[in-house]
Amino acid sequence: MRVLIVEDEHKIAQAIKKGLEQETFSVDLAYNGNDAYDLAAAESYDAIILDLMLPGMNGLEVCKKLREEKNHTPILMLTAKSELEDKIAGLNTGADDYLTKPFAFEELLARLRALLRRPQTALKNELICGDLTLNTQTYNVTRNKKTINLSKKEYALLEYLMRNKGRVLTKDQIISHVWDYNSNVLLNTVEQYIGYLRKKIDRNFPSKKSLIHTVRGFGYKISEENV
Ligand code: CA
């Protein structure tokens, strides 16, 4: 999952980025409202962590502008003030949740996960495809009840595929949700990682159906049905 952090206090921004990267997110940073807006409009984020007080456009303005343009990326608003009006203003402009500074990283993570879960609340923390399961809370991946060890990138790629089970994803879509802006990712990097996943998910379970499918000319999908 790819997240944009917008925070003008560099130290806080870097700390959140580091924390989220440890949790397998790919993270981009913006230090002012205008850069935040430009990035959010150009890239595909799964969530935006948006500070309220920013140089340039403030957080409320960024949020309002994105929503006016039908950008529905979940937004978690950060505010240094705990006043009721700020929260109400934030939610009225289309933020999905807010967090008052200072906060514990664990709380930020919990709220972020809750936002990412919203479209599929029924699934709770577990993504399932046939006998393959991925727990987004514990990062535990199993097939046929056997634990599969994945690198952070492999996990992030698998999570993105599983959140879009049955849908064909292009390499460009995969790159924009699994890698951050600063990574120099080539299309064949995606092929390479799909290859790693295939080995661990499919080839290591030869008696089981293949779950990762190549849709020639389009991209990849995960599905328990044969294409
Ligand atoms: Ca600020």
From TrEMBL:
Q: Which residues bind DNA?
A: 124-224
> Per its UniProt entry, which superkingdom is the organism in?
Bacteria
Q: What GO CC annotations are associated with the protein?
A: cytosol; protein-DNA complex
Keyword Transcription regulation attached: yes
Please report the stretch or stretches of sequence annotated as the Response regulatory domain.
Answer: 2-116
Among the record's GO biological process terms, what is one? regulation of DNA-templated transcription
Name a GO molecular-function annotation.
Answer: phosphorelay response regulator activity
- Which residue range or ranges hold the OmpR/PhoB-type domain? 124-224
Q: Is-annotated flag, keyword DNA-binding?
A: yes
The record ties this protein, via InterPro entries, to:
CheY-like_superfamily, OmpR/PhoB-type_DNA-bd, Sig_transdc_resp-reg_receiver, WalR-like, WH-like_DNA-bd_sf
Which keywords describe this protein according to UniProt? DNA-binding, Phosphoprotein, Transcription, Transcription regulation, Two-component regulatory system
Q: Which residues carry this modification: 4-aspartylphosphate?
A: 51
What PANTHER family does UniProt report for this protein, alphabetically?
A: REGULATOR OF RPOS
- Its recorded name reads DNA-binding response regulator
